[in-house]
Prior knowledge:
Bound molecules: zinc ion
Strand order of the largest sheet of chain A: 4-3-5-6-7
CATH class of the largest domain in chain A: Alpha Beta
Number of strands of chain A: 7
Largest sheet of chain A: 5 strands, mixed
Strand content of chain A: 5-15%
Oligomer: homodimer
Number of helices of chain A: 8
Structural class of chain A: alpha/beta
CATH architecture of the largest domain in chain A: 3-Layer(aba) Sandwich
Amino acid sequence: MRFSPLVEQLMDAFRVLPGVGPKTAQRMAMHLLERERPGGQRLAEVILQAIEEVGYCQRCRTLTEAEVCMLCESPRRDDSLLCVVESPADQLAIEEAGGFKGRYFVLHGHLSPLDGVGPESIGLDLLEARVAEGLIEEVVLATNPTIEGEATAHYIASLLSEHGVKLSRLAYGVPMGGELEYVDGGTLSRAFNGRLPFASE
Amino acid sequence: MRFSPLVEQLMDAFRVLPGVGPKTAQRMAMHLLERERPGGQRLAEVILQAIEEVGYCQRCRTLTEAEVCMLCESPRRDDSLLCVVESPADQLAIEEAGGFKGRYFVLHGHLSPLDGVGPESIGLDLLEARVAEGLIEEVVLATNPTIEGEATAHYIASLLSEHGVKLSRLAYGVPMGGELEYVDGGTLSRAFNGRLPFASE
Lengths: 201, 201
Ligand SMILES: [Zn+2]
Ligand SMILES: [Zn+2]
């Protein structure tokens, strides 16, 4: 037995969400249709609105429906410190760990020439222009401690080397091969405090 | 730090799904906005369409966008056997276990007088009319093996007692206090084969 075509389509559609297999997708579809139609309606409407309206902050490229995000607009952040991360989730993880009071720049990925992801795809032209403004004294390269994240950090370091900014990297303490998003706050906070000068070669 | 209002709303909206806490909701929102906008658009559209169009089969009350569901319309099922379940998920679990070739009736819940869920809320008027048609010889009361499921089965048994149908219950083998939806197919299949006459008192 299968459910009706539309109910089956609903189950299939839930599979787009991370970590959702066939059984979970079925449970979600049933729960929504049996008990949560108003909540489901709201979820669908918010998804459509977010897809339509949420873009990148013009200054830091984090996700926002505004032209410039709240954090870029805040007068209470240190303009001399810029932290470069691969994703908004990494940015959130660092914020929640506490301690860092500078600004951010979000790459939305890392360099991956084989997939056609070059410097401009991850906003490095915007990053260089930002550093060229002259306010930034230190750039913390907080890309993921993976091969691709390290390669991206090295590329950025070489790109920014002529601008006379200090470059640093999170202290190890963050596990090699892991993803920042899943590192606990304590580890992340300590790694931040122990950050090291970035050695380009 | 919080994300922008719309991104926060998206995270909150995902919490309507079963088993989705704040961290999972955040991961879903990020995944969708960063990597799966077409899939998210499709999910939202299918949710809206399903909420609008999916109702109850006029004959068995399972979820369907048609007036009468595929299983009720199938000429290959035994009209003399009717299995009463609490939910479409339970119906699916029994179908996937295999072995039962009769028809179904879906209550969408169980009697719960304190919550205002009476016999008509779970379609018992329709069920009685169906049995009164005279084709059904046996009704399998496959409500959940919980206090409420048992009470509902007893109520139905007494409602149908004057119609001269045989009443049966799933053999134990289904764990007490559990929910049919999560019982493995083998257990469920054996419980079906070993079903017992329903003792009303
Ligand atoms: Zn910003
Ligand atoms: Zn039906």
